[in-house]
Amino acid sequence: MELDSLDLVRDALMLTLVLSAPILIVGLLVGLVISVLQAITQIQDQTLTFVPKIAAMLIVAVALLGWLSVRLVEFSVAVFSSH
Question: What distance separates the 2 farthest-apart alpha carbons in the chain?
Fold first, then answer.
């Protein structure tokens, strides 16, 4: 199966979206929860959201590391075996 450059770029961008989506969704949800808590308690500290979001995203990234690496290796094999 031969890939031309547009297919390769499209596949790489789609893989990037698929691999980053779970991490970004967790960051979004944690940020939303913290924002609601800030609105309820009227604590308006802008830096309060950074540490929990980064920690949650890091935990998800570590938990999905095996899946992420398998998907990257599959893509790399597909790219280099097409020549």
Answer: 59
